[in-house]
Recover the amino acids of this structure.
């Protein structure tokens, strides 16, 4: 598969990109899609190590989020965002599972088959996390967890699946429309044998409830981890800020949201890792 910085619809070819921490909110990865424009960026959090019960389990210089962009066939684009908790290896262990299974689940299966296949993927990922945590642990108390969101764009149709507190939002005419409901209390902190706690991933839930969301020209889609959304009282704050600035380029949208994170980080004194995908529907 190719990994271009940008492609035009008439030149479209299947591709796959696993984003790295170098692709920041201030300098995001960008790509022209058949029906719109996409930008994805990430930002390392500043939360102090001492706030974690097992500070040695967290690698302070490592961003724990991952973003995977796949186009298994022309016209179909799938974005998967993985947000880990306290153990940066968790996302790396999970990426191969999502890379192999998500394109088929979201791109070709009927609804009943999607649910069955997603439940199996969910179990496989959780078991892999538990195995990795046991292998990596040289002490008791190591914890790790993962929440995820995989979103499918095809033409003007949008659908996806998530578990945990990663959210998909559409901004239309300055108003925010939540496509999924964050599972804020998704984790099970029960201890495993040898003292390792592998938090469960929540419940895989497809969105929107009606099966798919039909995009309109000018719609802005945000896929974001709780590093941004956890700071806000209401997702309407994001929509209002974007409407106020009148920005429609996805890269510039991420630049502005980076400033929003800056603002809250200064007010709150810390921040979590943040990954955001911004998609603007319609050709420029």
């Amino acid at each position: 598969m190719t990994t271009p910085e940008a492609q035009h619809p008439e030149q479209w070819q299947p591709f796959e990109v696993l984003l790295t921490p170098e692709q920041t909110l201030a300098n995001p990865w960008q790509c022209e899609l058949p029906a719109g424009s996409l930008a994805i960026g990430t930002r390392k959090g500043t939360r102090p190590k001492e706030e974690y019960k097992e500070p040695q389990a967290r690698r302070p210089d490592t961003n724990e989020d991952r973003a995977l962009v796949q186009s298994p066939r022309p016209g179909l684009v799938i974005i998967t965002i993985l947000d880990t908790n306290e153990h940066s290896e968790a996302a790396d262990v999970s990426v191969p599972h999502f890379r192999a299974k998500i394109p088929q689940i979201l791109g070709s299966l009927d609804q009943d088959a999607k649910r069955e296949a997603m439940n199996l993927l969910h179990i496989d990922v959780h078991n892999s996390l538990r195995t990795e945590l046991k292998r990596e642990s040289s002490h008791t108390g190591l914890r790790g967890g993962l929440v995820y969101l995989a979103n499918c764009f095809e033409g003007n149709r949008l659908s996806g699946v998530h578990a945990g507190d990663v959210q998909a939002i559409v901004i239309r005419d300055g108003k925010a429309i939540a496509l999924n409901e964050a599972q804020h209390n998704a984790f099970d902190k029960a201890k495993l044998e040898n003292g390792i706690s592998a938090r469960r991933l929540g419940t895989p839930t497809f969105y929107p409830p009606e099966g798919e969301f039909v995009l309109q020209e000018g719609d802005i889609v945000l896929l974001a981890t709780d590093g941004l959304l956890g700071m806000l009282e209401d997702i309407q704050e994001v929509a209002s800020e974007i409407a106020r600035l009148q920005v429609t380029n996805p890269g510039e949208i991420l630049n502005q949201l980076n400033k929003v994170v800056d603002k809250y980080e200064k007010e709150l004194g810390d921040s979590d890792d943040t990954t955001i995908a911004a998609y603007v529907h319609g050709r420029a």
